Structures are given as C-alpha cells and as structure tokens.
Amino acid sequence: MKYVLVTGGVVSGLGKGVTASSIGVVLKACGLRITSIKIDPYLNTDAGTMSPFEHGEVFVLDDGGEVDLDLGNYERFLDIRLKRDNNITTGKIYQHVINKERKGDYLGKTVQVVPHITDAIQEWIERVAIIPVDGKEGPADVCVIELGGTIGDIESMPFIEALSQFSCRVGPGNFCLIHVSLVPVLNVVGEQKTKPTQHSVRGLRGLGLTPDILACRSTTALDENVKEKLSQFCHVPVSNIVNLYDVSNIWHIPLLLKEQKAHEALIKALNLQGVAREPMLLEWMERAKICDTLRETVTIAMVGKYTGLSDSYLSVLKALLHASVAHRRKLVVEWVPASDLEETTLREAPEVHKAAWKLLKSADGVLVPGGFGDRGVEGKILAAKYARENKIPFLGICLGMQIAVIEYCRSILKLRDANSTEFNPNTTNPCVIFMPEGSKTHMGATMRLGSRRTYFEVMDCKSAKLYGNAAYVDERHRHRYEVNPEIVTELEKAGLAFVGKDDTGKRMEIIELPSHPYFVGVQFHPEFKSRPGKPSALFSGLIAASCGQLETLLHGQGYINRVQTKVVANGVLPPKVYQNGNANKARKLMVNGAAFYANGNGVHV
After folding, report:
1. How far is CA 85 from CA 67, 115, 415, 516, 546, in A?
2. Whole-angstrom distance between the N-terminal and C-terminal Cα of the chain?
3. What is the pTM of this model?
4. Rounded-to-integer distance, Cα 177 and Cα 25, Å
5. 155 vs 234: CA distance, rounded Å
6. Packing angle between helix 537-546 and helix 314-326, nearest 10 degrees?
7. What's in the keyword line of the UniProt record (predicted)?
8. Cβ neighbourhood burial of 526 (10 Å; 0-12, 13-18, 19+)
C-alpha cells in the first residue's frame, strides 16, 4: 500500500479537499486503484450534530456514516463508495482508546497520547486503507489521506505525531507528503509573497514531516523566480512545486496537476515507475471545456434555511451542476432565504420580502432542500404552493418533500392547521410525524440513515422513467420524521401520487403530482450519489423540465448513466452509450442543438 498525505498551511479553506480529490483522479487515470481517508481533528465523533453554518453540509454515506463534506468530493471525483471509517475524528480515536482501556486491554499501563493515541491512529489508517471502495476485490494501490485544519493547530498535534511515525514505519517509496499552502499578493506591492509558505513548511518540518511536493494556491500563475525562491527556502525541487491558481471550475484542477507533471513527481516518490501509465484525462478535459463554454442558462431558485453559506448545500449544488452540464445549460442558482418569503418579513421588511419573491418568480425551476428546525418552514411551504399552482418544475428533498405534503393538505384537503409534529407537536392534523424508531433524547446517529431501498408502486410515472424503469432504487437517507401513513389514502384521492415506498409499503419515499409538468418530492437525498459523468436521475429531471427537455428525456426512458468521450482534432466524436459496462446500440435525438443518444435503458448526452 502506498500513502499520499495532503496537509494545509497558512490559512484554512485553501481547497485541500479538492486538491486531494484531484490527486486521486490523476493517479486513477494512471491506472491505479485509489481510496481516501479524511482526518478531522475536532472532538465530535462525527459531523452529524454540527451546524451547516459552521462546518458546511453533512455528507451521508451508504452505511449511514455522517461525515465531512470532503468525503463527498472524494466520492464525486473518484466515483467510489466510502464508509464511515474513512472519516477519522479525534472523538472516534479517543472513544476507541477509552473503550479499550475500560475493557482492560491496557491493563497495568498508563494510557497516554504517545504511544496509545498515536498507535490507534496508525492502526486505523492501515485497517481502513485496505478496504475496497471501488466495487472491485482486494485493496487499493494508493490511499490519499487529507489532514483537516492547518499546520500548527493544537488539536491536530496527535495526528501530526502519528503521521510522522507512520511515514517512518512504511518507509521511503511508500509515503508522499503534499503540502498545500498560500502564496498571497499584497495589493499595495503587487508582488507574490513566499514568506507565509516558508514559515508553514518550517513549522511542518519542525513537527517531523518534510514535504515532497508543494501545491501552491494563488490567484494567478506563479512567476518562475517565485518557484525558485520557494524551492531554495523550502528544500523542494522546482519540478515538485505545483501551482494551483484560481480556475473557472474545479474540473480544471486535475488537468492543472497533469499539465505540471505532478503525476511524475508522485510516481517517483511512491516508487511506482513501470506500474503507472501516462494519465488519460480526456473526459475531464471535455467536461471542463463544455462547462466553460455554456451560454444558455437555466435558473433554479434554491429556497432554504442556510443560504448564507453555499457549502451548506454543496452536494445539491454539485448535483444541479452535473445535470445542467449534461443538458448543455449554464447553471444559475438564485438563493432565496425561505424566511424572506413569509408574511412576517412582509410586515417587518417589505423590500426584502419583495426581492425574495422576485427571485423565486424569475426562476425556471424551484428546489427545496433538506433541513431541520422550524425557521423558514412557512416560506418553504409558500414556495411549494407557488410552484404547484403555477406549473413551475419543483423538486423537494427530505424536508422539501414533507413541506410539499403539508402544503397539499392545507390547500387541497383544506386542513388549515396541517403541520409536522416537528414544528407543532399539538397540531390536530399531523401529516408528518416522528418515526417510532427514532430517539428524542439523543441527537447523534439516531436518525434513519444511509442507503435504503425504495420500490416503485407505479411504473408509469416520471420518477420511475427517469430511473430507467427500474423496479426499485437505492438512495441515501437522513431524517427522523416521515409522512403520516394514516393520511396517505386521503391525499391520493385528492390527486397526490405516492409512487415510491419502502419495503414495508408504509413509509412514503417519492411523491408526484401527475397533473403537473414536474412536481416531485423525495424523502431521500439523491444528491449524494450524483457524479460528474453520471448525474442524479431526479436532478436531471428537474433541469430537463426547467429548460423544456423533459419529454425528450422521458421518451428515452432514463437518465445519463455514463459517458465515454473520444476527443479528436476537429472536435468530439459522438459518445458511446454504456449500460452496466456493455455498449448498446443507440438512436440519436437532437434537443436544442445538443446530441442525445437514447436506448431502452437511458438517455445519454
């Protein structure tokens, strides 16, 4: 097993997660199998109880792990399925060691940070690194490890010590350290300054780790003299200094690494000469190029609670991007704070209320993502009502589906006080209720989490067609409230179709309004399994409906599964259509100038 460690210096938020993911993409393109580990030095056991405002979204894995959003980047970039143990936290490590101490595994010993905590960290890394995550048998070739935070943070010290010991244990040729640092430009001087990176590397070396490669973040490309200065003071060859300057979209980052021959430095440091091939990134090149050249827009109103921080809805944004690029549209997201749509805001801040409604009404489609708590709920209900009554494409996710049900109960069934018991425990018409298996005393890891199977009750519905007429789908969940099964029959008589249910048939998973162009709500989170070359079916449906392509998409009976593109001198050859790895014959459709290839299983662009 080979290990690549990615650390960060100077400031947080430099993009270590994207850098680590892109390194994985380049190594995968070299023919190597990749796995990833994210180390978060906080004391929380997992990210499940953290506020999205503080830490961004909580990403959910197949096994129900609530993890850092960077694991979402790894899954999207590398098309892998990680597990909860791929996210290491201080809380997990200390809990593991304390449990062993209570069992008597350290009987007679004084349990200390060194060696017990540091040993536990190293053992965890070695254990998780050999677990396959790409659907193949046997361990991966390379494990990319990202250390969260910034070098010098007190909470990361045990991990730094453990990784220093680990690099010695695995030995030269099996460990490569990439340090991501900032090279700022002072506006007054206009000069790229190397001193922050120098100090960061000095601190790293003082802690027992020496970088093999420097990944320098900057607004513009580094001057050659700046690279030479960094090489001289940081003791890193110029050829091992990679410049990750600002780009138009993050799909360019793997291309930047390849252009600057970062793969050669990695292969040399990991002693993989003769094993790894020259990386082929044609699909990434074409995807990045398409994204940059899109001009015709599709506007989606994101009606949410955490609109002040886009990372709160990172996977939703990425899923929208994947679908919009597949449909050859430039994505425009209008952030609509849900509370600004409410009557209270109209009284207290009428201009804010007016601006929010203007944004909502200017959108081609409406998306209400998941969330918790009652703030903004009435605004979300108003957004769902607007989309339903005005035939605007709508997708509600988790809470977004629940508020659509509440709105339908109020408007169509005339149950004026219909509500969720989450927001009004005393409502006389509870249409959304607490799940019986949930806990009201403990918040962490007590929800319905992870991959669950949804069976289609009706095959002649938009959702089933978008999923390729599959009998069932496996999607990831994160909720503790559900649609009240006692009210389902009444809702169905009033025209709301519950087209997807769980294996018991009692838990509602997918709703549709058959009379509406596209009004879909799902209890699960389809955004977590969306990939750049394989967009989520329901997000693809939302974008298609928002730009007038839904009937063509449904006519092909499916969504974009996998694209293999050959780039030639004069452009791009038509992509092959794949289903389960086997090429199928396809017929060509033209939609607004974009070529679609449709077979019995899906539409491919």
Report:
1. 9, 21, 46, 43, 39
2. 37
3. 0.88
4. 17
5. 25
6. 60
7. Ligase
8. buried
Find the angle CA(325)-CA(326)-CA(329) to the nearest 5 degrees: 45
Q: Give percent of the chain with pLDDT exceeding 70.
A: 90
Predicted pLDDT at 593? 34
Catalytic residues, by residue number, are: 398, 525, 527
Torsion of CA 264, 267, 272, 278, to 10 degrees: -40
- 264's CB contacts (< 8 A; 6+ apart) are 239
In DSSP notation, 52-106 reads HHHH-PPEE-TT--EE-THHHHHHHHHT----GGGEEEHHHHHHHHHHHHHHTTT
Measured CA to CA, the distance from residue 230 to residue 232 in angstroms comes to 5
Dihedral angle sign, alpha carbons of residues 458, 459, 464, 467: positive
How far is the C-alpha of 360 from the C-alpha of 345, rounded, in Å? Answer: 15
Q: In 273-398, which residue ranges form alpha helices assigned H by DSSP?
A: 282-293, 314-326, 343-348, 350-362, 377-389
SS3 26: helix
Question: Measured in whole angstroms, how far is the alpha carbon of residue 102 from the centre of its chain?
Answer: 37
Q: Token pair for residue 165?
A: 């010991």
Closest CA to 23 of 249, 204, 229, 264: 264
- Whether the Cβ atoms of residue 53 and residue 309 lie closer than 8 Å to each other: yes
Q: For residue 67, give the amino acid letter.
A: V
CA distance 243 to 262: 10
Between CA 538 and CA 528 the distance in angstroms is 12
Q: How far apart are the C-alpha atoms of 356 and 353, rounded to whole Å?
A: 5
